[in-house]
Amino acid sequence: MALIHFLVASILSVTAVTSLPLLNATVLPQNQTALTVGSAVPFGAVIDRCSVPGTVALTFDDGPYMFTPALLDILSANSAPCTFFVNGGGLGGIYNYQDVIQRIWREGHQLGSHTWGHSNLAGMSYEAVVSQMTDLEQAFVQIIGGFPVYMRPPYLGVDGVVLQAMTDLGYHIIHASIDTKDYENDSPDLIWKSLEKFRAELNAGGTIILAHDVHQMTVVSLVQGMLDEIRERGLRPVTIGDCLGDPRDEWYRASRW
Ligand SMILES: [Zn+2]
Q1: Cα–chain-centroid distance for residue 8?
Q2: Ligand 1 centre from 148 Cα, in Å?
Q3: In whole angstroms, what is the distance from residue 173 CA to residue 255 CA?
Q4: Staple partner for 122: which of 27, 136, 159, 165, CB 3.0–4.6 Å?
C-alpha cells in the first residue's frame, strides 16, 4: 500500500511540472472505462458508510482555509489520515492555498472535490453541474497534477441530474453517517455539543464523519476529542478511500481528455 502511494505520488509530482497530456496512458487511467477497472466502489451512487470493518473516516469540508495548517499538525501528531473535500472559490480560494493543498496530499490525506463554488447542485442544469466539477478539476491539475474521483455535494444536495452527471464524469459521491454540525457550535461554550452528537451517532453505527476545517473550534477542540474517542473504542481513523477498500491509485486521475 505504501509503495503504491509512493508511486502515485511520484507520478503526480512529475505531472505537476510537466504537461499532463504527455502522461503515458498506461500509467494513470485516461478515461472512465479504465478508471473503473481497479475500483470496487460504485460511481454515481451515494455512499455514507465505510465498508472496511473497524475503520472510520474523518472528513473536512469547505477548505482550504486559514485553520487548515493547524489541523494538519494535529492530524500528523495523531497519525490520523483524513479526507478533505475542498472548494475552488470557497472562503480561502484554492489558488491562494496551493501549498496547503500540496501538504494535505503529501502527508497522506485524501483530497476530494466539494465543487468549485459550493452551490447546491440539486436543481441545477446538467451543464452547470458538470462545470462545477470540471472547473475545480482544472485547479487540481495545476496544483497536484491530477484530480480526485471522490466528491461530496454541498449541502448533500443530490437529484437525478446530479447522479447522472457524477456517473458520466466518474465520481464517487460521499455523504456522511455522522454529522457533527460543527458550524452550529463554533464557540468554546458550544463545541461540546458537536462532540456529543459525534459520540451518539458513532454509537448508532455511523462511520463517515462530517466536519469543517473552516471553523476554528473544530480544529482547536473537536478534532482531538473525536480522535481520542476513536482510539479509545479501538477504531482506526483512515481516509475515505481506505475505509471503502479502494486502492490508492484509484483516488485520482490525471486527465479527462
Ligand atoms: Zn460544504
Answers
A1: 17
A2: 17
A3: 19
A4: 159
Could you tell me if residue 37 is inside a domain? no
Q: How many A from CA of 120 to the centre of ligand 1?
A: 9
Dist. CA 118 → ligand 1 center (Å):
6
Range of the domain at 103: 2-30+43-253
E strands within 63-152? 83-86, 110-113, 147-148, 150-151
CATH of the domain at 105: 3.20.20.370
Distance from Cα 184 to the centre of ligand 1, integer Å: 13
Q: Which letter does DSSP use for residue 220 in this model?
A: I
Active site residue 212: yes
Q: How many angstroms separate the alpha carbon of residue 164 from the centre of ligand 1? A: 21
Q: Are 103 and 123 in contact (CB under 8 A)?
A: no
Residue 35 lies in a domain: no
Quote the radius of gyration of the chain (alpha carbons, Å).
17
Q: Which is the catalytic residue, given 114, 172, 212, 215?
A: 212
Distance in Å, CA 53 to ligand 1 centroid: 27
pLDDT at 257: 61
Q: How far is Cα 147 from Cα 112, in angstroms, rounded to an integer?
A: 8
Low-confidence ranges of the chain (pLDDT < 50): 1-36
Is 73 one of the annotated active-site residues of the chain? no
Tens of pLDDT, residues 94-128? 999 999 999 999 999 999 999 999 999 999 999 99
Q: What is the pTM of this model?
A: 0.86
Q: Which three cell numbers mark 201?
A: 451517532
Residue 145's region, left for phi above 0, alpha for psi from -120 to 50, else beta, is left
Asked whether residue 17 is assigned to any structural domain, the reply reads: yes
In a domain? residue 206: yes
Total structural domains within the chain:
1
